[in-house]
Amino acid sequence: MPAHQLAPDITDDPTRILAAEREHLAVSRAALRAMREHARSLSSDAAGDWVSQQILQALLDQRVEALADHSGTPLFFGRLDRQEGDDLPGTVYVGRRHVHDDSSRPLVIDWRAPVSRAFYQASPSDPMRVALRRRFGYRGGDLTAYEDERLDQGGAALAQSRILTEEIERPRSGPMRDIVATIQPDQDEIVRSDLGRTVCVQGAPGTGKTAVGLHRAAYLLFTHRERLARSGVMIVGPNRAFLSYISSVLPALGEVKVDQTTAAGILGDHSAPEDPAVSTIKGDARIVPVLRRALWMHVVKPTEGVLFTKGINRYRVADHEVREIVAALRGTTRYGPGRATLAQRLAHLVLVRMEQRGESPDDRVQDAVARSKPVRQLVDQVWPKLTPQQVLHRLFGDPDFLAAAAKDDLTAEERALLLWAKPPKSFRSAKWSAADGALMDELADMIERTVPLGHLVVDEAQDLSAMQLRALGRRCRTGSATVLGDLAQGTTPWSARSWTEVLTHLGFEDGAVTELTLGFRVPREVLDYAARLLPSVAPDLAAPRSLRPGAGSLSVRPAPDLAASLARAAEEALAREGSIGVIVPDASVGAVSEALAHLEHRVLSPDTVEDHRLLVIPASLAKGLEYDHVIVAEPADIVDAEPRGLARLYVVLTRAVTSLTVLHSKPLPAQLG
């Protein structure tokens, strides 16, 4: 008998209830397989032409991929029994995707559907017409337990769910998992925010802000499928290692067509070394008017007119007329369209001369005149075709040009820092830095309009410069964004001090800022220890709180022989269940890897996340990652390695889900004393 039709005589028998729920799971899995096989059987031959066939086949392939049954994850994780007299279905199973049988009867309802909202939001004080909420416990893909919460009897708040706690604390290895079964009410409110609303989430460590952003992307794709299929959704993370870590979340939720990239992936993977002081100037929004002037200073005052010859006829546009057109266009349009408009305006004046002589030219004649050699030569002379690289090459290589473009927006000292000591011979041979990438993108948008997306999710946004934020904002200027981060974890010289500042640079001054301070991942003992750094790195932020006491989760040990202590700590962690991250100062990665040579391990690189149980992690790459057991070596060296070293240490100390071991041969930073 299917679980949604439980007979009265078994409803109080836990064993038989569990058996019935397992039967429903088996039926649902079989139905999902049938749905996938049906999708496989569909043919693109129904399309009328080859191009349409290719498009339809791609859509069918995506549908098949989205219907994959991930055997290690539960197909449903909750159930709602509605109150009597409700016009909605009496029993609803909530899961990662919709599943129906061959009669189109729903067996599992997608967690994003409106009816599923009660699973996350209902409470005894507001049951949302739900009589009973059932949570399911799983091991792998097998249903192992259930837990009921009565919501129709009012009274006191519900006790902490054991299944929910166990799911949150379950040891992890490999990429990040979705949190769809454990989303909390305040997280659910963010996830289900309207598409037109830009949301900024200030999230303390372990509050699930990254997962909330990913689940909001999945929710918006479900709710606004057709619109976002056209305009697109993009996830922007801090580095490729982070993207690898989160790469499995959206596919597990049935969303396989979402671009995931980094700021460098958008702005160009430029990596020339650069003084942080120079990068800071280039990242400041004050450079925007400097770039604008530098671009438009290439438009020069015309000194000649246009002479167009057709057969024996000559048609002249006087130099003063050309100057009037250029003056009217200059700065009122983007640079590239301005060039095209100038050619068309000149061609129009030639056509006026033709009409004055009794001719009847049409649009084809105007286009031909606009493309003619005399017009092209004048346009190239007055309004030259440019690339962002050409503009920057001149700006950073010519002191007089930089001074004229900068005016009062940059000081003499700042201009001196921006100038190349030895300018490259051409823009093609120039080596560009990461900060230059954002300047090029700004110039590219001044030349030709950037194509926008429907929705952008930006993680670790506090570490982006104003110019990088402007670049991302251009990509969702007609859409919306989900902005995620933690001001306390800002580790770049230009890290934001307020979310108002971030939203302004993105172009969403009216965006809503919400704060997540209640942690579920990091044990309280660990979080309280790391929070000792907050008065030094983010004094205006409230201290984070954790729901998990975590007694015994923190160990701080002096380690005169650091290599030997690291090896012992790693061996102790390997004897326990779960993933292990050994986080060390970047300069010590090689030495630590050598100290652990007798243990099978991998070193995390900037480009990939190694799927290995024991990882050595440079401190600069730890942001956004989580491990069951974290071993931190030499906090003092992590702090001394960079200007915002205390913020980096705060990041490092909050990566643990089960235990944190701190080893030090040097005195700890005073804030941790």
TrEMBL record:
InterPro entries: DNA_helicase_UvrD/REP, P-loop_NTPase. This is HelD family protein. It comes from Streptosporangium vulgare. The lineage of its organism: Bacteria, Bacillati, Actinomycetota, Actinomycetes, Streptosporangiales.
